[in-house]
Amino acid sequence: MNNYIFREYDDDRIIIRNLYGSTQKFDRLTLDKFHLLMLDEGEMTVDVNRRIFNLKSQSTLHLHPGDKIKYLQVKKEVKGYHLIFSTEFQNEIRTSRKSPINLQLKKQYPYQEFNDADYELLIGSIRRLLRYIEDETHTYRSIVIKNVVHNLLLDISDRRRKDHGNHMEQATHKDVILERFKSLITGHCNEHHNVSWYSDVMMITPDYLSKITRESLGKSARTMITERIISNSKFMMQQSNMSLKEISSRLNFPDQSSFGRFFKSFTGVSPKEFRNSLNQPSTV
To answer: CA 111, CA 107: separation in Å to the nearest integer?
Structure first.
């Protein structure tokens, strides 16, 4: 399996893997990046967030950080691509004029099928992307790569809107703010813990942001940020060998003690106790 990697600022911004063969299988995984599966040929089944998607030839599946994959199983020998985008990269290419109806459509319809002509357009973008990832001498390589990915995602979004847009209600101004807030939390909660940072980005007051989240979800903006930080910290403890000190630093706490107090105040156990519980045998 060949990997194509675009690195920037010492981070892997994009990883592209060739899907080939009949042995790919993943089981019980919580995603921490954006993923795009593009299936040229074959069939595979993915159970994500308790929804089952049966991918066919010339189809795509767009997944997000926090999505929970119960299993991914190849049913028929496949060819295609698996693209992985860091949250930083996704936020950089995201348009500031994100339509509220597109946000709803993307969440409700992550799977999309294409005809021959439209899918060939997507494959053309992949070919260009691979070319520029490999050509490290190109003066404007980073800009071109971001534009190619942006156009690729817009083409998928266009197909989604044409297929499903008439079935969605027009979102309100509050819907826009709520979806934007959720998106910002996904990409930035590890670095920014204060509600004021998010409200400043959206040019509203912290009180107004919390009013919207309480009315829509029954919880404050602060609670939503905290829940995501706790979820991310649990993921790091479950999925990696990072020390608690490294995790606290990754989550932008001043020290391990501060992270420990934060974690215990919302979970009732310390990070060490939580990590130790992962290794305990289950009892009936």
So the answer is: 10
pLDDT tier, 282 (very low <50, low <70, confident <90, very high otherwise): very low
Q: Are 48 and 35 in contact (CB under 8 A)?
A: no
**Residue keyed to tokens 């107090």:** 261
Say yes or no: domain 3-167 is CATH 2.60.120.280: yes
User: 222 by DSSP, 3-state: which?
Assistant: helix
Q: Residue 155's pLDDT is what?
A: 94
pLDDT value, residue 75: 73
Contact 100, 162 (CB under 8 A): no
Identify residue 58 by its one-letter amino acid code: Q
Averaged confidence pLDDT in the chain? 86
Q: Which residue has the tokens 């909660």?
A: 189
Considering the domain 173-278, what is its CATH architecture?
Orthogonal Bundle (1.10)
Amino acid at residue number 131: R
User: How do the domains of the chain map onto residue ranges?
Assistant: 3-167, 173-278
Spell out a b/e string for 184-214, using b for 16 or more CB atoms within 10 Å of the CB, else e. bbbbbbbebbebeebbeeeebebeebbebbe
- Of residues 66 and 144, more confidently modeled: 144
Confidence of residue 169 (pLDDT cuts 50, 70, 90): low
Q: Are 250 and 190 in contact (CB under 8 A)?
A: yes
Query: Could you tell me if 122 and 114 are in contact, meaning their C-beta atoms sit under 8 angstroms apart?
Result: yes
What is the mean pLDDT of the segment spanning 167-193?
A: 78
Ranges assigned E (strand) in 173-241: none
Residue type, 185: I
Determine whether 101 is exposed, middle or buried from the number of CB atoms within 10 Å of its CB (0-12, 13-18, 19+): middle
Tokens read off for 256: 């391990």
Its sign, for the CA torsion 211, 217, 219, 220, is negative
Residue 255's pLDDT band (boundaries 50, 70, 90)? Answer: very high
